[in-house]
Amino acid sequence: MADYRIETVRNGERDWTARNDRGAEVRIAAADNPGAQPSFTPVELLLAALGGCGGLVVDRTARTVEHDGLRIVVDSVSRPEDDGRVGVLRVAYEIDLPDGDGDGDSQGQAAEALERAIRLTHEKYCTVSRTVEHGARVEALGPDGSTLFAGG
């Protein structure tokens, strides 16, 4: 399992940029900050991570099935009683399966292979999904390196 590191730097009030060691960047801001658009909110990045992880795993586990048209839509549903957390994350895999060679069986085989890949994604291979499902320990360190918060 790989370890990851992201640096997040402040651009201005409620406007940040996250960077990885490979040079990729993503802007993070409040949705209601018009001066910081286009951007993602932190929760939107969580949803993007779930969809992206699912897509990358399906690419690996469903290689034998044509899935170029696969679209993954992730929604969050929260209620007041979720107390500042996302209540439910729904990951929907959408694709029109090809008709095949007319026997109908190839479409069923493609559907079965994709369903298997999607199950394996969330049961075994998608680090993001499995971390969200099982939780992770979060430690917040202050400027002096001391632990200011530890939970999970």
Automatic annotation (TrEMBL):
InterPro entries referenced in this protein's UniProt entry, alphabetically: KH_dom-like_a/b, OsmC/Ohr_fam, OsmC/Ohrsf
SUPFAM superfamilies xref list: OsmC-like (SSF82784)
Coiled-coil stretches: none
Protein name per the record: OsmC family peroxiredoxin
